[in-house]
Amino acid sequence: MAKDDYHVIVYYLLSYLYDCLKKGRPVDKSIIRLEAYPEEIDPDYYRYILEHLLKDGLIEGVSIHEVPILGQRNASQLRGLDNMRITPAGIAYLQENSFMKKAYETLKALKDIMPFI
């Protein structure tokens, strides 16, 4: 699996959020934001992933707002990244999904750049 694969990014986010929840730490926006990733990831792709994690009930605490752009279709903007939390469904997805296990193996090799793993 590539580092920019959907399941790798989802594993990274959910495992970070779960770690914060278990340790009672606030979410660090710099880790949640796109610049935390070691490789270039398209911002629309990353926003798509976050929106679907929210819509699928795997994360909570953030909201999606449509931002009108003159002459273009509306763009969405995520708000409240520092309030983001993993849900019980997100924890179950993280622990039970076979793709998450593959993503874990991919990220295990990258643990030096992801200190919470």
Characteristic terms for this protein:
117 residues, 5 helices, globular, two-stranded antiparallel sheet, alpha+beta, two-stranded antiparallel ribbon, Arc Repressor Mutant, subunit A, 47% helix, single chain
How do the strands and helices of this protein lay out in sequence?
Elements: H1 6-23, H2 29-32, H3 43-55, E1 59-60, E2 63-67, E3 75-79, E4 85-86, H4 88-96, H5 98-108
Antiparallel strand pairs: 1-4, 2-3
Protein name: YjcQ family protein
InterPro entries: Phage_Tuc2009_YjcQ, WH-like_DNA-bd_sf, WH_DNA-bd_sf
Structure description:
The chain is an alpha+beta fold and 117 residues long. It has one domain: Arc Repressor Mutant, subunit A. Helix content is 47%, strand content 12%. The chain has helices at 6-23, 29-32, 43-55, 88-96, 98-108; strands at residues 59-60, 63-67, 75-79, 85-86. A two-stranded antiparallel ribbon has the order 1-4. A two-stranded antiparallel sheet has the order 2-3. The mean pLDDT is 79.
Count, helices? 5
Mean pLDDT across the residues is 79
CATH class: Mainly Alpha
Oligomeric organization of the protein chains = single chain
- Spatial strand sequence of the major β-sheet: 1-4
Q: Helix and strand string, N-terminal first?
A: HHHEEEEHH
Note the overall shape. globular
Task: Identify the CATH architecture.
Answer: Orthogonal Bundle
- Structural class of the helix and strand makeup? alpha+beta
Major sheet: 2 strands, antiparallel
**Uncertain stretches:** none
Radius of gyration over alpha carbons?
A: 14 Å
How many domains, as an integer? Answer: 1
Give the N-to-C terminal Cα separation: 18 Å
Which percent band covers the strand fraction?
A: 5-15%
Helix content: 40-55%
InterPro entries: Phage_Tuc2009_YjcQ, WH-like_DNA-bd_sf, WH_DNA-bd_sf
Protein name: YjcQ family protein
Organism: Peptococcus simiae
Pfam families: YjcQ (PF09639)
